[in-house]
Amino acid sequence: MQALPEFRSSAEAIRYFYVRSKAGIFVPLNTLVTPVEEYGSPMIKRYNGYPTIQIGGDPTPGYSTGQTMAVLEKIAADTLPKTYSYEWSDLSREEKSSGGKVFYIFGFAILFVFLCLAALYESWSVPFAVLLSVPAGILGAVSFQMLRQFENDVYMQIGIVMLIGLAAKNAILIVEFAKARTDLGEDVIPATIAAAKVRLRPIIMTSLAFVIGCLPLMLASGAGAGARSAMGNTVVGGILTATIIGIFLVPVLFVAVKKVGGSNKKKAASPEHRSEQPPDNNEHPE
After folding, report:
1. Confidence band for 225, pLDDT divided at 50, 70 and 90
2. Is residue 196 assigned to a domain?
3. pLDDT tens readout for residues 38-84
4. How far is C-alpha 4 from the geometric centre of its chain's CA atoms?
5. Burial bucket for residue 235 (CB in 10 Å: 0-12, 13-18, 19+)
6. Are 173 and 155 spatial neighbours (Cβ–Cβ below 8 Å)?
7. Is 216 helix (H, G, I), strand (E, B) or coil?
8. pTM score, two decimals?
9. 218 located within any domain
10. For residue 50, what are the domain limits?
């Protein structure tokens, strides 16, 4: 039953509704019921056909969205009546459905980098010298996030995926030069030392340029600063740590991989190979 708009604008309008009594006479509805005002949801939405109330919130600083969602699920299970249920929507629904897939993403990222390096060096062992330097960058990214009290969110995970390629870049600069010299017959240790000396300046210059360029992203403010700061903080911390540790770690890893692979034996340099030898300069000894 619904009256015209002018007769249903307030609760007192029920006096205009008449119902038939047992005696057969019509009486106003307000003589039988008393309206009571109660506060409820100003808007009733439907989700999968059920009337719903949407609740939104943000996690407490220092806690991730995953931890917050787990606590809300526990509270809902303990307090909601049996006739009530809950569903995640929007970004929370996407995060819930994609939870646990981050390890697959990291695994595929490392696999693709490994296959590219294997094709580049035409070797199954040399790429490990590059990839084993990536954990140093991830350690720096996690450390910087903890120092700034950032949580492990999706933006940090995107930054780590980027960091896999960025940290491998520095290692490639050393490994590429060292492998070229060992392929010409030079012993692996002198070749690696020479490569580390020659590539030190390019590594430092490119890394500093990248870090300085990402500082505005790391120190962002205003609307959307949380996402930019989390991603910038991850890549800046990771590339700094990968550079500081990597210039010492990568040569050791390359020597270890070559020794374990048994490919450190000297080869006779053919005329074609001699033409590919890196030019000597004053930055490294003969």
Report:
1. confident
2. yes
3. 887 677 788 888 888 888 888 887 777 778 888 898 998 889 888 88
4. 56
5. buried
6. no
7. helix
8. 0.57
9. yes
10. 45-96
